[in-house]
Amino acid sequence: MSSYRIQGATGEWEVVIGLEVHAQVTSNAKLFSGASTAFGAEPNSQVSLVDAAMPGMLPVPNRECIRQAVRTGMAIEAQINKWSRFDRKNYFYADLPQGYQISQLYHPLVGEGRLLIEADEKAGIPEDKVIGIERIHVEQDAGKLMHDQHPSMSYVDLNRSGVALMEIVSRPDMRSPAEAGAYVRKLRAILRYVGSCDGNMEEGSMRADVNVSVRRPGEELGTRTETKNVNSVRFVMQAIEHEARRQVELIEDGGTVVQETRLFDPGTGTTRSMRSKEDAHDYRYFPDPDLLPLELDDAFLDECRESLPELPDAKRTRYIEELGLSAYNAQVLTAEVETARWFEALLLETATAQGKTPADVAKQASNWLISEFFGALNKIGKELADSPVGHARAAELLALVGKGTISGSIAKQVLETMLETGDSATAIVEREGLKQESDSGAIEAAVDKVLADNADKVEQYKGGKEALFGFFVGQTMKAMQGKANPQVVNEVLRAKLA
Amino acid sequence: MSVTRETVAKIASLARIRMGEDELDRMVPELNSILDWVEQLGEVDVSGVEPMTAVIPQQLRLRDDVVDADPLTGGGVRDKVLANAPAAEHGFFGVPKVIE
Amino acid sequence: MSEITELGVKAIRDGVAGGEFTAREVAEAFNANVAAAAEALNAFIVATPDKAMEAAEKVDADRAAGKPLGKMAGVPIGMKDLFATQGVQTTAASHILEGFVPEYESTVSQKLWDAGAGMLGKLNLDQFAMGSSNETSYFGNVASPWRRSGGDNAVLAPGGSSGGSSAAVAARLCPAATGTDTGGSIRQPAAFTGITGIKPTYGRCSRWGVVAFASSLDQAGPMARSVEDCAIMLEAMAGFDPKDSTSLDLPVPEWSASLDADLKGKKVGIPREYRMEGTDEEILQSWDQGIAWLKDAGADVVDITLPHTKYALPAYYIIAPAEASSNLARYDGVRYGLRELPEGANLQEMYAATRAAGFGDEVKRRILIGTYVLSAGFYDAYYTQAQKVRALIARDFEKAWAECDVILAPTTPTAAFALGDKVDDPLAMYLNDVFSVPASLAGLPAMSVPAGLNSDGLPLGLQVIGKAFDEQGVLNAGLAIEQRAGFTAKPEKWW
Ligand SMILES: [Mg+2]
Ligand SMILES: [Zn+2]
């Protein structure tokens, strides 16, 4: 259990957090119209007559949006409802052309599911924890209001209006900002594995409504507030911290928390009451009479299930059990779908290049990827996605190490050149003469010279100062410009010093 | 159940219809007579009856995920979308400034 | 040429195709009638004589070129102003849409133009199709062309909401017109004006581009002066539309070619609950007459029961306003139509001012009722209960179909009333639809056929209700009545 507590003036407080994550469904066209969903277009250029709610316009649902929501539901092991309905949520706002949002209240497409967040000591999550997911429903996104273009007017852009969203509603199962952060990160990872949402929080493809309340540990739930549209993991955590503190102070000062909608200000990291949504809403939900009930058949569900990729939890377990990776490596490599894909491609190519099985080379490849390659990329400010070195080239480099053509330390140097020039490892090793010397004749000659030049140290070594062995290795490697096979050097030295 | 003047004012506000005092006064008895009358529905024994969801039994059809497949329901028609706007400005719909 | 305007859809189409007259001559004749009646009847909100001429010239040119002609080729029609017409103002008879010129054409109107019909103009109606007398139109009420015999010159209601359509067809301003029916808006005005109109099965005609009133009930249909003309026009209007999720994905039958007034082997159900108190004696007599005619046509007549009939109207007056309160939320002054922006008003105040100025009283009344019945704490008691009752009403019909093929009933409880008679009493006005609403709630095809005149010289209509998808059965029974009623009365011209 998380022991995260807020220290108030009157004692400890526990924070209770539930998240409603809105994730934009990856689709070409909108949920109920044929207009494009592409990001960044000219204002109102991706708006159909349907999206603008012209008189007499009608919604026709996009199969792909339903399919992606179902696949997402399956990925969180949720109940998929073969019978669901669209409801109208009625309210007036300039970004909502119909005067209602088509959503699902009474019969959502996806029911009860779950999501595992992993233990993370450092972050304050002592053990694995399952967060309940209440439902996923499909709904329309709203348009966008711009307030800075005109002194007395706001401008309405309906490009986003009608884009499909999945609203993923968690149970109030989280107890610390860290857990909420881990939940959003894990959810984002799963969406990206599934391919149902690009998870791009900056572009607004994923945003969270953060429900926070505080209570004395073990007591009844307090009144919650909902902070809307928080669009990064960091902001989610900040919003919770600020909001929980604000509530604690308010209560301790004798006030009461009011159930309200709040806005997060990323500039100050604080939340404030939302004036425009102030008046108590009565959304008058009722089934959308323009749409019949949505009934899914087994063939549709089967296709959804069969098209699901291996998901992060399963992959992590497999990496540990079948590939023999450390728990840490498995965690790092499965956290993001791109990393896992990259790693698996690298693994396959490395195994092929060395005539081995993936399991044989998994440790080598995973260690190299995490400790060498990520570090090198980091140095040049790049991510795996835009790495100048692809997995084929990387496998070639690893094969050179595996076959003993170059040493690990030379490999580092070669990788740097690869990242700089884009040339292949083989070409660089060839061009720069970095091939490792394994011929014991040459190495013996070098060792003989090192031992002769350092007779005093040999004396000391033989006198019991065994730590000097590393010195002799270093000198030999230096004499051979780092190209000697370290194993052979070791063997020769041991023999000569015996 | 009958509605009070206050309720009617609340409903009118929820429906975003501005109503003067006179109009409210007129509306209250009118709405009450209609509501009184529809409340006879309460007499009907509906136990075990599901509310109607589709008048004619049929399934919801889903469309393919194709952009602008039908020009009548596709995008790229900004001029048409803005043609009747009371305040179209620089490709946007203009509304009184909203403070969030 | 004056007798051209006496012709119906089929006669005009065949006359044009056979070269008896040109489509141009037809359009000119009706354009003239439309213009002449503009003030007195107020049936049209906008006349579009050029559109009618343009379509006619195209038909004449196609005929001259030997091209195949459509089902409605050369027939100019009136278009209820609830259908969006590209480039022509579309208002739903509301101030809130005054000046709105759609950039799109409704599916149904497009199909009619594709079939060779031309548009004489946009017909007046009750505002947002809410009303039974056409008195809620922002553009003034429509006057029925009919007057009571005996010198009473009271202006009569043409019925509603398709009152412009009914008046125009009865007064020979057009051979046919489109209507829409949510709770009786085709059938009741047809009955009031001695014409024929059919509301097909829910989903037969696309709702795409038709200003929505109550989505689960709205259905377009033809209004004309004969059963056959309705059949022809319905063929042109109906058909699957992928843009409407509730559109029926079924082929359109050849209703007109299959018309058959021989009802041998058919069973006609007479619902005992329709013998309601308050129904005009002459209406009941005409119903009995209708029963006799259908027997004469070979049908067996059986008594049936539709036990929840009494609850149809109250259920309707929950469901329709609920849907309307939401459907009409889009009229907010942001993207089209009226905007009222008082000095210093914020967005929400602009909405409230715009909607206050833009909607008429009846529309406001229904929006408020709808908002109330959906609001927190009342939803189940009103809306859910109404949808359950609706399911029971549909079940009543289902059971009835075990015993009969079609149902015969009056269309309305009275003949046309005078304008102003019921305008201050919403409930009395609502009761007009008592016989038409049950079929609407169940989505069933239903039509009104003129049965004769009452003692005041006003038309009375009989209603035939059929099974879902069985427009043919409805049309056939309608034809049997039509043939026996021999209704040839027409309003005496006073305009
Ligand atoms: Mg929310
Ligand atoms: Zn939502």
Strand ordering within the main sheet of chain B = 1-2
Q: Helix count of chain B?
A: 3
In angstroms, what separates the terminal alpha carbons of chain A?
58 Å
Structural class by helix and strand composition of chain B: mainly alpha
Q: Which pair of chains has the greatest number of interface residues, and how are they split between the two chains?
A: B-C, 54 and 75 residues
How much strand of chain B? 5-15%
Overall pLDDT of chain B:
95
CATH architecture type of the domain at 5-42 in chain B = Orthogonal Bundle
What portion of residues of chain B is helical?
Answer: 25-40%
Largest sheet of chain A: 9 strands, mixed
Our Rg estimate of chain B from Cα atoms comes to 23 Å
Helix content of chain A: 25-40%
CATH T-level topology of the domain at 5-42 in chain B: Histone, subunit A
- What structural category characterises the helix and strand content of chain A? alpha+beta
Low-confidence stretches of chain A: none
Walk me through the structure.
The complex is a heterotrimer of chains A (about 500), B (about 100) and C (about 500). Chain A is of the alpha+beta class and about 500 residues long. Chain A has three domains: about 5-305, no CATH class; about 310-430, no CATH class; about 440-495, Arc Repressor Mutant, subunit A, CATH 1.10.10.410. Chain A has helices at about 65-75, 175-195, 235-250, 300-305, 310-320, 325-335, 335-355, 360-380, 390-400, 410-420, 425-430, 440-455, 455-460, 470-480, 485-495, and strands at about 5-10, 10-25, 85, 85-90, 100-105, 115, 130-140, 145, 155, 165-170, 205-215, 225-230, 260-265, 270-275, 285, 295. In chain A, the strands form four sheets. In chain A, strands 1, 2, 6, 7, 10, 11, 12, 13 and 14 form a nine-stranded mixed β-sheet that branches. Chain A has a three-stranded antiparallel β-sheet with strand order 5-4-15, with no helix packed on it. Chain A has a two-stranded antiparallel sheet with strand order 3-16. The longest helix of chain A is centred in the last third of the chain and has 22 residues, at about 360-380. Chain A starts with 5 loop residues before the first strand and ends with a helix. Chain B has a domain at about 5-40: Orthogonal Bundle (Histone, subunit A), CATH 1.10.20. Chain B is about 35% helix and about 5% strand. Chain B is built from three helices and two strands; from the N terminus they run αααββ. In chain B, a hairpin with a 2-residue loop joins strand 1 and strand 2 (about 90-95). With about 500 residues, chain C is of the alpha/beta class. The two termini of chain C are about 20 Å apart. Classes of the chains: A alpha+beta (about 500), B mainly alpha (about 100), C alpha/beta (about 500). Chains in contact: A-B, A-C, B-C. The site of zinc ion has 3 residues of chain A, from loops. Zinc ion binds next to loops of chain A.
